[in-house]
Amino acid sequence: MRDMIGYCGLDCEKCDAYIATANDDQALREKTAQLWAQLNNAPILPEHINCQGCRTDGVKTVFCENICEIRKCAMKKGVSTCGQCTMLATCSTVGTIISNNPSALENLRG
Question: Is 67 exposed, middle or buried (0-12, 13-18, 19+ CB in 10 A)?
């Protein structure tokens, strides 16, 4: 499995935070911060939009580093993604991601 597939199965390379970081794109950071702040009703600033992928070494967004319950669970269980977890089919923690993003499940099974 590619390193840029997150614990949840989402493709980090398609995430605006990853793209802004990889390309040092300040305009995309600003746009993403504004959108994510509105969607999450949270004070998200452009300087928060830096991420090199949740399963790689390097900088991560505050959410990915400290808040994401999926990442916490996978790390605690010692699995590289939720695809290695025996609870995948019934897991409510990753279930919302999978139900809203069929490609995430394909990536996890991939």
Answer: exposed
Q: What is the DSSP string of 2-71?
A: -TTB-TTS-BGGGSHHHHHHHHT-HHHHHHHHHHHHHHHTS---GGG---S-TTSSS---HIIIII-HHH
Residue 7 lies in a domain: no
Looking at the domain assignment, is residue 93 inside a domain? Answer: yes
Query: What SS3 state is found at 97?
Result: helix
pLDDT at 1 exceeding the cut of 70: no
Does 6 map to a domain?
no
Dump pLDDT digits (tens) for 25-69. Answer: 999 999 999 999 998 899 999 999 999 999 999 999 988 898 899
Q: Which two tokens stand for residue 53?
A: 């992928």
In a domain, 4, yes or no: no
Which tokens is 35 given? 């959108």
The structural domain count of the chain equals: 1
- Which residues is 5 bridged to in the sheet? 11
The residue range of the domain holding 90 is: 12-109
